[in-house]
Write a structure and sequence with these properties.
The chain is mostly helical and 372 residues long. The protein is built from 13 helices and four strands.
Length: 372
């Protein structure tokens, strides 16, 4: 492949930034490695897109506003050099009206970078690993897909060694005692994830999550492989079923941040009811969490076994609280007439708007939480 000098230069920059990002993330130490990683991986992706556009004989530069009033194309300059597109602009130019999981992943990291700059939030490392890993895997695929395997990263990277088989107890405590300064970051994470469809949220292109299974080599030619990766699409039904069972057995539940911005059922119903065109009441909400298997029923012996992306069990009050992601999911799903009926088993009733209404009578103070 005959590449131009700007293309090769940006490819080298891409590789260097990606390797530096992984190096900063994998170094042991109690600091917020995600912040450094995000900045560097965004630089790597931006350099990749610049290389791609140059290879297509396109200049990834911002046009000057004066171009509209003068002959020829003029570009903005910084210190005499053309101002290159930032990553957000590259995503628009490259994907146009397409929104695959890879684009959503990068949009998430861009927003996250703006939130976490100049902050020290080590508690967030554990809950952002999936998105960070996906950004790296996607970059590897794009580099090899557009420029060939000689520009890939796999020869320069390896699996990071771990000190323990499970998450240290200190990390679990840190998640539950998140500092107030991180509140806006957590709100951003929940809001972004809550706005994604289930297909994108569970796609490896958006968030890459794996679990490691100790493997005993039973053939001589596999004895040297400590870790083996393979695509789930290449497995048969029996193998896939075994993997799903293993996932249930060994996957550690993500510990939610203690009741940060969680909502009671009545609050969820009120917010969703105002956001969708149909009548939405408590019995609709109850049917919805049962349909999506968000939490166990009241008589279940393990009430804490919830889908923590959407719901957590409050042991102190013996009831359930719901996340912003669950609210966003309900608004998205219940706004569609067919989906509303599929989830609740009932035909949705369109709201009737009255010209005059009586003032709403407030509930008496001290009303106990509903566990419905």
């Amino acid at each position: 492949m005959n590449l131009s000098i700007p293309t090769k230069s940006n490819l080298r920059k891409c590789q260097a930034a990606a390797i530096a990002a992984v190096d900063s993330y994998n170094r042991p130490g109690p600091r917020f490695r995600t912040a450094v990683y995000v900045v560097l991986i965004i630089m790597a992706w931006q350099a990749f897109f610049h290389a791609y556009f140059y290879s297509q004989n396109k200049k990834p530069w911002y046009q000057s506003k004066k171009s509209k009033h003068k002959k020829g194309v003029r570009y903005e300059k910084i210190d005499g050099e053309p101002k290159h597109w930032d990553l957000a602009e590259c995503l628009v130019k490259y994907y146009r009206d397409r929104h695959p999981s890879e684009r959503k992943n990068l949009e998430f990291l861009l927003g996250l970078r703006n939130k976490i700059e100049h902050r020290n939030l080590p508690e967030l490392d554990t809950i952002l690993f999936g998105e960070c890993q996906a950004a790296l895997m996607n970059l590897e695929d794009y580099l090899e897909g557009k420029f060939g395997t000689q520009y890939g990263l796999r020869e320069s990277l390896s699996l990071s060694l771990q000190f323990s088989r499970s998450k240290p107890q200190e990390q679990k405590k840190a998640i539950n005692t998140l500092a107030g300064g991180a509140k806006s970051v957590v709100e951003y994470i929940e809001r972004f994830r809550g706005g994604l469809t289930d297909d994108v949220l569970n796609d490896l292109g958006y968030s890459y999550r794996v679990f490691l299974v100790p493997k005993i080599a039973n053939r001589e030619n596999t004895a040297d492989a400590a870790v083996e990766f393979f695509h789930i699409d290449e497995t048969d039904e029996e193998q896939r079923a075994d993997l799903l069972r293993l996932n249930v057995i060994i996957k550690e539940r993500q510990v939610p941040i203690a009741n940060l911005d969680k909502k009671k059922p009545s609050e969820v119903v009120n917010i969703v009811s105002q956001a969708i065109p149909f009548v939405f009441k408590m019995h609709h909400h109850t049917t919805a969490w049962k349909h999506f298997r968000v939490r166990p029923t009241q008589k279940d012996s393990k009430p804490e076994c919830t889908n923590s992306n959407y719901c957590v069990y409050d042991r102190a009050h013996r009831d359930y609280l719901y996340t912003n992601a669950w609210i966003q999911k309900l608004i998205r799903e219940m706004s569609d007439q067919a989906k509303f009926q599929q989830v609740t088993g009932l035909s949705p009733k369109t709201k009737v708007h009255l010209v005059e209404t009586f003032d709403e009578i407030p509930l008496a103070s001290g009303t106990s939480r509903s566990s419905r």
